[in-house]
Structure formats: structure tokens, C-alpha cells
Amino acid sequence: MGRGSRLWPLPLAALLALCAGCDKQATVRDPASLTYTEDAHVAYREAMGSFESQDWEESRALFQEVSRVFAYSHYARLAELRVADVDFEQGKYDEAIAGYRSFVRAHRGDPNVEYAKYRIGKALYLDISDSALLPPQEERDQGNALDAYRELRTFSEEFPRSRYLVDASYMLEVATQRLVRHQLYVARYYLGRGNFEAAVARIDRGLKEYPGSGLDAEALVLKGETLLKMRQRARATEVFRAVVRDYGGPFGAVARSFLAELGEGS
């Protein structure tokens, strides 16, 4: 019988074996409870051995067996998470997310909920990674990026001292930038077709809904340029001055150029 189909001894069988010729020590501790926990640990470690060897199907079968045979042990919960990890490591992000969400729903008070929620955010983030075979990120549907943004933002707010916060914050910043870049891509599309009001609306939406992208200066310069095309000189001047004052850098230099053309001091 293969390892994947191995059946771990049930507590009753272990109890009967231990009670054969039992002595006074049987009154000191509960052998059934001890054996159940030890067997669960041994079974979990065997499954982890397969996992660490990247034997995905074997480890999945063994973790599922731990959950079934030792359903009332701490290791059953850990095994549930590891099954989701198996999917994650294979790039099966939809399946992994479903597994992590199932764990969160079933074990809301478990300390590993933090890990499960972090992995949900990471799976969503990895699912929006760039590919040379696909159009530029800003041109694609942003549904996955939006899901990642929401999940990672909620995680950062819920676990402000998490050990995973540095990684989560980085992924949140990237997801935020992608969402804002999409808004700027659409704004430029409208700008190129003379729909200036729609362009400004897209820029404002990106700045308002997705703060912290680091793209504010670029967005505001585009807004100022659009306002000039709308013949709203005063508003454009105000925007360019704000860029120079609050951001500087390369976009600050562009804003100064616009102000110089307008005959306005920065």
C-alpha cells in the first residue's frame, strides 16, 4: 500500500494496545489522548516531508488524510492550510484562494487566520503579474488587480503589526499603481479623442479612490495639460503650481515648463 493511501491507527486501536497489561502509569495520563496527538503529529510531519520535497500530489493526499483521521486535533487545521499551500505552490491560485477562504470561514478565531488572509492577498497579487504574451497591464481588465488591492488593504488595516506586513505593503503599492495607471491610460484615451471632461474625471477618480500610488505628480500634470486644452487656464495654473510645490522631481520640472509658457511664476 502506497504512502498516499496509508491509514493511521485509530485511537481505539492504540488504546487497546496500550491497555494490554496496563500498570499504574495508566492512571497518571490518558494514553488514548497522548497517542492520538502523537500519531497526528507523526502523520503531519510525514505529509510535510512530501510537501518540502515538492511531491505535490503525495503531500495533498497525506494532508487530506490527516484532516480526516485526526479531525479533532490541531494538526487537522494545519493540514487544511497546507492543502491550500499545495495549490498555491503549483500556481493554482483560484483553488488556493478558495482553500484559504474556507479556512478563514471555518476557524475565525485561529491564529493562522492572519496567514490565510495574507496568502489570499498574495495569490491575487501573483495572478495579476505581467506576461510578455499579454497586452500592457494598464490596458487589461483590472478585476483581479482591484480584488488584490481590496484584500491587501484590508489585511494591512486588520493586521498593522503582522510579520507579513512589509511584503503585503509592497504588493498593495504595486496593485495601487496598476489601478491608477489604468485610470491614466483611459484618461489619455479620452484626451486623444477630445473628450476632455471624461479625461479629467478619470484622473480625479484615480487620485481619490487609490491614494498612495506614488503617481500623483504624473496624474496632476496630465490633468493640468487637459485643463489647458479645455481653456481653463486658471485651474491649470493652480494644478501646475501644486505639483511644483508638493512633489518637485521630473514632473515638477514639467510643471515649471508649463508655467513658464503661461507666463506664470512657480
Number of strands: 0
Give the tally of structural domains: 3
Q: Overall 3D geometry? A: elongated
For the record, the CATH class of the largest domain is Mainly Alpha
Estimate the mean pLDDT confidence: 86
Kindly report the name of the CATH homologous superfamily of the largest domain: Tetratricopeptide repeat domain
Helical fraction equals over 70%
What key phrases describe this protein's structure?
Serine Threonine Protein Phosphatase 5, Tetratricopeptide repeat, 3 domains, elongated, disordered N terminus
Can you characterise this structure?
The chain is mostly helical and about 270 residues long. The chain folds into three domains: about 1-10 and about 30-90, no CATH class; about 110-130 and about 135-210, Serine Threonine Protein Phosphatase 5, Tetratricopeptide repeat; about 215-265, no CATH class. About 70% of the residues lie in helices and about 0% in strands. It contains twelve helices and no strands. It has helices at about 10-20, 30-50, 55-70, 75-90, 95-105, 115-125, 145-160, 165-190, 195-210, 215-230, 235-245, 250-260. Helix 5 runs antiparallel to helix 6. The model is unreliable at about 1-30 and about 130-135 (pLDDT under 50).
